Amino acid sequence: MQRSLSEAATYVLGQFGRLGIEVPERSRIKTIYRSVCNDDGSSRGLIQENDPDFDITREALRDFKQLEFFFDQIGDDARKDEYVSVLKKIAKDSDSVLPQDDEQDSPSRDAQAEAFVFAGCLKAGLNPSFKEPDVVCSLDGQEFPIAVKRIKNLKQLVKRISIGASQIAQIGGHGIVAVDVVIAMNPKNYRMIAKVPDIFFGLTWMCHLRNVVNKYHAKIQRVIQKKGVLAVILHDHWLRMDSHSHWRLETMTYRIPSTAIDRSVENRLEAFTQKYRRAFPNLTILTK
Question: How many domains does the chain have?
């Protein structure tokens, strides 16, 4: 079912309640909810660009669509306690309403990034669990760890990937480092208001991300070698106005395979990638 933004907001808030999780009035989640819904739960309607809540409403599109995806995947799954611990971090937060305003730690959005990866793995049939390093899946009958990182500055990219790689090495086996680069790629969280065709948007963003990856590629390869990391997958979630003048959320992935993996495990990486990527909504794949 395709929900409107206000319907998604109401749905997400209701799911927190269903699991017995209080969402404080001054929290990020409740603030963005109020930007799209009235006190009685009805929609505020179209929010114009001159509305003081416009930027918050735009951010609500990203947050509520990600959380909607998570709740749709878990459904009535019996593992309530496992989900509650993560969702409490998301609900009872101290993060700024707009991500560009968080210069230091932002544990709520960090947990949300983990929840998004978890939901993708669940939809892909990879039987994920929330456990060290962040998410662990089952692939071909073996555990497949995923270290999830969220960075706000590209200068942190190699360091955070290195930390994730070390976490995978401690667990053993082979895994992935998944990195949310939303604010690192767009630190001021600028709006993309040019009404461009989808294919042009994808190609433009691919070139932009490739330039970044090329700059750090050698350093990334050095920090993931001999640690069981099959690849690094970058996630970006871009808010843009499409060619029909509708605001939409685009999810993009960019895979950086390890150049040092043995050919015997290449099939393992391909099997994971194919299942994982197909799971995400509104996905633009930027690399094979």
Answer: 2
In sequence order, which residues have a C-beta less than 8 Å from that of residue 2 and are 6 or more positions away? none
For residues 160 and 285, membership in a common domain is answered with yes
Asked if residue 279 lies in contact with residue 271, where contact means CB atoms within 8 angstroms, the answer is: no
**Residue 205 banded pLDDT, cuts 50, 70, 90:** confident
- Locate 218 and state its tokens: 């050698």
Q: What is the pTM of this model?
A: 0.92
Q: Residues 144, 137: contact at Cβ < 8 Å?
A: yes
- Residue 41: how many other CB atoms lie within 10 Å: 12
Residues 143 and 257 occupy one common structural domain: yes
- Residue position matching structure tokens 């090329």: 214
What does each C-alpha distance from 41 to 168, 181, 203 come to in angstroms?
Answer: 43, 33, 39
Contacts of 191 (CB under 8 A, 6+ apart): 58, 239, 240, 241
118 lies in a domain?
Answer: no
Rounded Cα–Cα distance for residues 267 and 250 (Å): 28
Q: CA 242, CA 265: separation in Å to the nearest integer?
A: 39
pLDDT digits (tens, 9 = 90+) for 139-177: 888 899 999 999 999 999 999 999 999 999 999 889 999
- Mean of pLDDT values over 112-139: 95
Q: Determine the structural domain holding residue 286 and report its residue range.
A: 124-288
Judge whether 254 lies within some domain. yes
The tokens for 253 are 């992935």
Q: Are residues 91 and 176 in the same domain?
A: no
Say which amino acid occupies 112: Q
Q: How confident is the model at residue 67 (pLDDT cuts 50, 70, 90)?
A: very high
Shared-domain flag, residues 254 and 171: yes
